[in-house]
Structures are given as structure tokens and as C-alpha cells.
Amino acid sequence: MNSEAIKQRVRERYGAAADETGGCCAKTEPIQISGARSPFGCGDPIALMEIHPGETVLDVGSGPGADALAAARLVGPEGRVIGVDMTDAMLRRARENAAAAGAGNVEFRQGDADALPVEDGSVDRVISNCVINLVPDKRRAFREMFRALKPGGSFSISDLVGENLPASILEDPERYCSCIGGAPSEEAYLGAIRDAGFEQVRVVDRFKWEAPELAGTGGMVWSLKVAGRKPAPAAQGAR
């Protein structure tokens, strides 16, 4: 499948999943945040960073909005949260959740992770939860995050990576949509982040689990929690 075909299949899969009780990447208990319940995701990117009142946070692949709403509480009424998702049904659900939570400082925009609908250098923090593995052009997605961040801004990502994945998994569009077929190696994932220009890139945690699809294949996937920063201007960094 080419990139556009993969995107369309992911869009269809997650559009249907928006009204279901389970998400393909769910490996933890569903999240309850001020009226937003989400079974999607493979970690808690917000727990990996400090988010301060008044900041602007970008949630890449915001889904039904649980992480965006959690961030909205941290930035407070003077701050702002922008959630970006490619799926109409997820955006609709996220807006409903935001309304139910009374969150007036969060908005949801339609867009792709590799073409974010935000201005250059306009956000303080970027978060993303089990999304980049679904993006065909991961390098471009990380470059977009870099572009959106202000100098000195930081990112926090929870995602899936893997190794020794068999061809039967890599070539199956359904496995791609289930967050396994598109999982790159950890080395490739971190390399793409660094190549985008980020510094202080560090793995905060790993959680390996047995994927039924990989039983007997020798392949493995795990949840990777990684954080980093866009370099600050030289003058600021010298202080």
C-alpha cells in the first residue's frame, strides 16, 4: 500500500473505532478525564513533561480528546490546547467531550501528523499518544513537530516500536492499522527524531508486552516513552 492508501485505511478504521469501546493500541485501563473516556493510546505522554499555566500545547493525533483535556486543565484558562486528528468521527467525539468537560481553552482541528495545521514556532509543548506508528512518513511527522514548536519547546511521546517483525505483519494493512505493522525499530524511531533537529532526546520508559499477532514469529513490540527538546537560540542557551 502507498502512503495515501495507508492513510485512508487508518482514517476508515479509526472513524469506525470512534464509537466503539476499545482501541487498537489500548494496553492500559481506559482514561477518564473530566468527562472524556478514552481507551486509545499506549501510555501517558503528559506524565513525562512539565506543562505550565498559560502555555500552548499541541496534541498530535488527539483522538477522542482525553490527553488534550488533561493538558487543558494544566495550562489553565490563560493557556491553550490544540488537538489535531485526521478523522471526522474522532474530532466530533473530542468536541463533544470538550463541551461536556466545559473546556473552553481547547480546540480540535482536522489535519495529518505530517502536515500539521499550526503556525511555525507557535506551541510550547507537543504531546502524542500511540500515533506516529500509524503515520507512513514518520520523518516528516517529526519535522512537523519541530516546526510547530517554539525554540526551547519540548515534546513528549508514547508510541510503539518493534523488532524482527515478519513480512506477514509488515505487508498486512490490517496489522498496520492495529499499531503493529507500522511500528519501526527503536533505533530508527529515535534516529528520525534526532534527524528532525531535536536535542536531549531520551527514552524515559519501555514496556514490553506479548502481542498475540506475533506469537511464534520471533517478533516483538513495546511501548516507548520518549521526550526531547527543540534547541533554544544560541543567545538564550549561553545564559
Brief description of this entry?
The protein is of the alpha/beta class. Helices cover 31% and strands 27% of the residues.
Describe the structure.
By secondary structure, the chain is α/β, with parallel strands linked by helices. The chain is built from eight helices and nine strands. The protein has helices spanning 3-17, 66-75, 88-101, 138-148, 167-170, 173-177, 186-195, 234-237; strands spanning 31-33, 36-38, 56-60, 80-85, 106-110, 123-129, 149-163, 199-209, 220-229. Strands 5-4-3-6-7-9-8 form a seven-stranded mixed sheet. It has a two-stranded antiparallel ribbon with strand order 1-2. α4 (138-148) crosses α7 (186-195). Mean pLDDT is 82; it is low at 21-40 and 235-239.
Identify the notable features of this structure and list them briefly:
27% strand, two-stranded antiparallel ribbon, disordered C terminus, 8 helices, 31% helix, 239 residues, alpha/beta, seven-stranded mixed β-sheet
